[in-house]
Design a protein that fits this description.
43% of the residues lie in helices and 13% in strands. By secondary structure, it is an alpha/beta fold. It has a six-stranded parallel beta sheet with strand order 5-4-1-6-7-8, sandwiched between helices. A two-stranded antiparallel ribbon has the order 2-3. Helix 9 links the parallel strand 6 and strand 7. Helix 1 packs across helix 2, helix 2 packs across helix 3 and helix 3 packs across helix 4. It starts with 11 loop residues before the first strand and ends with a helix. The N terminus is likely disordered. It comes from Ameca splendens. This is Haloacid dehalogenase-like hydrolase domain-containing protein 3. Belongs to the HAD-like hydrolase superfamily.
Length: 245
């Protein structure tokens, strides 16, 4: 048996979603520019992307985790981000900004705005076939269930924990403790996979979960022990099998 698993066999795998299982198709700038086209406006995706990055950073600092502790909802937060981003790109009509923000918030529930990585479904199927319970822990708003459903991924999971609904976000241990309650097993029988070194790998390991880092671009070779790092989700089931037998 793997030395780390002497407390018991692996029972559950927790998954990050964005940039682990799927990513925004094209870019945010492309998606926002498409919506602007519908209203006769011509925006440059690169300019929109730059405005979005700056706005997202400001809102994340001022209203962490969708502002839920400050009385906002995920929809309030995102509508604000979209309106501010587009106003930076010279869209000035308040009614039009509201309409576009509402449309974009709803559009991002649809599969056509997301690209599921080619290794995602096979990894989920193989982990399920190992008899493991699968759940999600994601810094995401409550649209996540609809997004996973539209992308054909929801049925793989027994539960979802989003930061909007949990009221806390990774890297807080509290969101992992909520997920462990849903797993119904101790941390040493749970694994977690995600693409962020701090929010996924270090944070999950800090509560005793077996964290694995998905390092698709090989940027963390020196930071993470080889046995904890994978470059494709295809490699995850074989890593997990060591914790099952």
């Amino acid at each position: 048996m793997h030395a780390a698993m002497q407390g018991g066999h692996l029972r559950c795998v927790l998954w990050d979603v964005k940039d682990t299982l799927l990513k925004v198709r094209g870019s945010v700038g492309v998606q926002y520019s498409k919506e602007a086209e519908r209203w006769g406006l011509s925006l440059h995706p690169a300019e929109v992307d730059a405005a979005f990055r700056e706005t997202h950073r400001c809102y994340s600092n001022r209203y962490p985790n969708y502002g839920v502790s400050q009385g906002l909802t995920g929809q309030d937060w995102w509508m604000g981000v979209v309106r501010h981003t587009l106003s930076q790109c010279r869209v000035n009509d308040p009614a039009l900004l509201n309409t576009m923000a509402t449309n974009l918030y709803q559009n991002f529930c649809n599969a056509e705005n997301w690209e599921v990585f080619p290794d995602t479904k096979m990894a989920l199927e193989r982990c399920s076939s190992l008899g493991l319970k699968l759940g999600v822990v994601s810094n995401f708003d409550k649209r996540l269930e609809a997004i996973l459903r539209s992308c054909g991924l929801l049925s793989y999971f027994s539960f979802l924990v989003t930061s909007e609904e949990a009221g806390v976000a990774k890297p807080s241990p509290a969101i992992f403790h909520q997920a462990l309650q849903k797993c119904g097993t101790p941390a040493d029988r749970v694994a977690h996979i995600g693409d962020h070194y701090v929010y996924d790998y270090l944070a999950s390991r800090s509560v005793g979960i077996h964290g694995f880092l998905l390092d698709r671009d090989n940027s963390h070779k020196g930071d993470v022990p080889q046995e904890h790092r994978i470059v494709s989700l295809e490699d995850l089931p074989s890593h997990l099998q060591e914790y099952i037998v």
